[in-house]
Amino acid sequence: MSAPGNGPVLALVGATGAVGGVMIDIINGRESVPWGEIRLIASPRSAGKKLTVRGAELTVLALAPEVFDGVDVAMFDVPDAVSAEWAPIAAARGAIAVDNSGAFRMDPEVPLVVPEVNADAIAVRPKGIIANPNCTTLSMMAALGALHREFGLRELVVASYQAASGAGQEGIDRLHAEIEAVAGKQLGARAGDVREALEAAGLSVEDTPFTAPLAMNVVPWAGSLRDGGWSSEELKVRNESRKILGIPDLKVSATCVRVPVVTTHSLAVHAVFGSEVTVERAHEIFAAQPSIVLVDDPAKGSFPTPSDVVGGDPTYVGRVRQALDFPTALDFFVCGDNLRKGAALNTYEIAEELAVRG
Amino acid sequence: MSAPGNGPVLALVGATGAVGGVMIDIINGRESVPWGEIRLIASPRSAGKKLTVRGAELTVLALAPEVFDGVDVAMFDVPDAVSAEWAPIAAARGAIAVDNSGAFRMDPEVPLVVPEVNADAIAVRPKGIIANPNCTTLSMMAALGALHREFGLRELVVASYQAASGAGQEGIDRLHAEIEAVAGKQLGARAGDVREALEAAGLSVEDTPFTAPLAMNVVPWAGSLRDGGWSSEELKVRNESRKILGIPDLKVSATCVRVPVVTTHSLAVHAVFGSEVTVERAHEIFAAQPSIVLVDDPAKGSFPTPSDVVGGDPTYVGRVRQALDFPTALDFFVCGDNLRKGAALNTYEIAEELAVRG
Fold first, then answer.
1. How far is CA B52 from each of CA A202, B60, B75, B343, rounded to the nearest angstrom?
2. In which domain, by residue range, is A97 found?
3. What is the pLDDT of residues B231-263, one digit of tens each?
4. What is the CATH number of the domain that holds A49?
5. Chain A within 8 Å of B228 (Cβ-Cβ)?
6. Is B335 a residue of the active site?
7. pTM here?
8. List of chain A residues whose C-beta atoms are within 8 Å of the C-beta of residue B306
9. Residue A4, domain member (yes or no)
């Protein structure tokens, strides 16, 4: 598939990064792909590396304007600043850029797309750029989109249980190192004992991607500080949910909390709708959605947990309850792999949707 | 203090258990106590043990009707069934029973008390029994009580981050063993890899207090199954909050989730009030409350986390935000040691309040 053939040309920018690696796994795992050619692109530092994609060894190309010539769809899995500079260049060379960074998500001229929720939005892209949502927002979009179509979503109160890999490979390595530092010690009973154990193991508690110890702890912070004490992550959940679902006045309160889980974000969702909802009907809606796996039989210990669903593509939904004191509200718990559906998979699904639509 | 002297007689039933041990620490840590005598009581199996309380070595007495003779206040830190049988016996012998189990909390003839919220409720106790709330509910009561007095609480949406010690010493030991089993391995990337590591370390994943792996995971379940898919823990949060705050029609939705933290429960709280609220006024209210420590300067990385507050008596509150789309709502994050304020401390504070009131 990597040799020029019939079909559009796909480029992957950021092919050697953490999400880029998951992207290649996803492309390799597809039964078939619509692409006539696949180009791998990375910073000049990583150019020349060889990676195997669907059986063919591909040489990573250095990021430059010319590499986008002839490209139909260019997926960007790179930091915000790189996307901000290079996605418009790719678009100017004729590619449709599908960007997984935060650079364009709230740009009114850039659609923000989750294919099973608002696939049609990809058709209107005046800048030639389509954005992929933040991983925390994405984790609940398939479930909320399906419920919204039937009941009309009005309000959302969300608390997150976010994985370390949301902070990249650095976050994954840090959590593993912290768990090693606290293991075998009877910690967690006295204020500061975890912090001391990390320092004793040579882990700086100042210079960490999580601001505070994450092992044997939870950290109510993700992103950077915005007005009113809100974190950037919490505002993304609000603003991106509104844009994807097409509900500009959706009421949203989110509290984003990091937990000592390597990969897979979870969310406790309280969703208020315009009409009455039942657990039975919600179960039917979830069961009918191909990208959702319903795991909801607490009598048998059946509910989604991150360590049981990591590595998979679907959104896992469970603990569905009709809110006792809010007749039009549902409470539920959702888990989604933040590196797959939360990042690479959704970006790739947008790219395939573009290929299908021609 | 343990020899008969001037002052009322205090009994501690369950003196040799996990919460009982914390209770003795609390009694030993008080600057002064009002008691003329303290009696330690446990099951016949633990009777005869010697424990030091405020410098005096006390022999644990076997639970029997006669040990309550002459007792003014009897604190119960025992399982529900033991409380259900023995608190009425203590009351019949003339003691006021302060019970930390779930046996009497929703009994309309038993007050459910958090001293800084509803101390006056202890005066009306037709059964001679006063109940101490569930630890998850307790973690947010000081904060919500203070806000309710000024703004009038109407609705509550809560997601919990509950510690392993909520499941007792067995829960603490299990989490330590699980962390040891996963440490030093690159786990958390593939579904089931944590489960396999636990089994390889000889830890049954069927026979666990948490239903699912807790290390490198979060588990959206605590308690037992009730109607409509709700857990008993979630219904306690709803029903006990209503009773303590004296708001019978308070609207509550709670999702209770266990996290790999040894001790200290955290809660993400979305609270809707009857009148407009500001972060500034909420900060003033929290700062004026002796039992609350306000930790809320995210620009400096300042917010409460369990591992930084465990072992302390206060409730720690941070991440206070005016909800952007709900003009009368606040979002905040609260941490409280579930073995201290969440259990032993509040029970002891009720006992001292009784001693003060005579």
1. 39, 10, 18, 21
2. 10-132+344-357
3. 999 999 999 999 999 999 999 999 999 999 999
4. 3.40.50.720
5. yes
6. no
7. 0.95
8. 216-218
9. no
